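Chapter summary example: a protein plus shikimate-3-phosphate.
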Amino acid sequence: MSKSAATTVRFDPAGRLKGTIVPPPDKSISHRAAMLGAMASEPVVIRNYLEAADTTSTLNAMVRLGALVERRPDEVVIRGTGLREAGEVDGVIDVGNAGTLMRLLPGWLAGQKDRTYTLDGDSSIRKRPVDRIAVPLREMGASIEATDDRYPPFSITGARLRAIDYTLPVASAQVKSCVLFAGLVADGTTIVREPVPSRDHTERMLAIAGVSLRREGNAISLTNADELVLDELTVPGDPSSAAFAIAAGVLVPKSRLLVKGSGANWTRTGFVKIVQRMGGVVLGELEDPQGDGPVSPGEPITDLDVAHGPLVGTVVEPHEVPLAIDELPLVALLGCFAEGETVVRGAQELRFKESDRIALVVEGLRGLGAEIEATDDGFVVTGTGGLRGGTIHSHGDHRLAMLGAVAGLASDEGVEVVGMDAAAVSYPTFTEDFTALLRR
Ligand code: S3P
């Protein structure tokens, strides 16, 4: 997001928030649906596809790779190229701000024998490491050349791939998915081992597409496929976007919200569980963690009732981090209002997101009056029962922009968010949706 395009929006303290909010379609699932649609042999209809900057980058990239993308009012239809026939691309594939596109797509491209693809994106993407995908893809036989061997722009030359048994150094659904995509066309059975579970949308969608896939403990194994057949997919509401409404409903006095149609996949409900543990009123049915065996296809959804109430501090442990990774900035905000201390540990990955979300959450919330300290792998917040308000900069990071907005609604004096336009990356209707809750 360029600085000149940055817009400043003021969020005044809200009297109360009331009504129903439907979170936008899930970003992670939309990215995957578009990519798998492009890999499929038959047309795929995607209902409730997220129309936002990141997921538009993905559709554009699929078109560059030879897929036909038809955008209808309520659905997107993708006519793919087949798993092994991605088209040749002249010049660079622009991933914009989309880290998920940048890290997943190379898994597919790595299997396109003797073809070279170059990926690049905006200034934030150029700071995000790709060595974490280069290591396993090279082991499978692809060639990767990256700037300083670590950053975009980078290029991938495809090869006939061999299956690997790969242990992820950190739990990352992006890296896991990248290796699984490559495994679709590799000789043999690919195994990915994660230190702790991370979001499993790729596995569920591949299961729908007929791929043989199993989870045993924290290991996922997949055998290559001749083709993917998906037919149709419906994207649930995004729990990471719903989290802003949940936080606002819990923090703003007298609020009562219904969050409708949010994804309830257990690998994404870590935030709701943390809020519940802090004493926040969030009621709804969440999926139970799944055990070993064939990966179950499909994504559960839920409605959540949210009400204002007092909070107590909590400790977020490392194994919970991947299940709430994008919502941890909101945990810091809740911590400001909670009694006692709120600690997040084992979240060093936050430093490699759209911004360094440890440094910028601490800087941003401190500027609003919070007592918060950064640690190497998280933060420690001392609750003061509220937040004064002031000005916060999104630094082009969509989740920081929306964090500032929710902070403003719950603050004493309001918050001015510089760079609110960044929200368009995942939640283009954020300001309208929240304004509607105020007007009731
Ligand atoms: C995502 C995985 C997470 C998350 C990101 C989306 C995905 O990243 O932070 O916003 O769609 O797979 P990591 O897998 O790098 O933790």
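Key point: Residues 209 and 229 are 5 Å apart (CA to CA).
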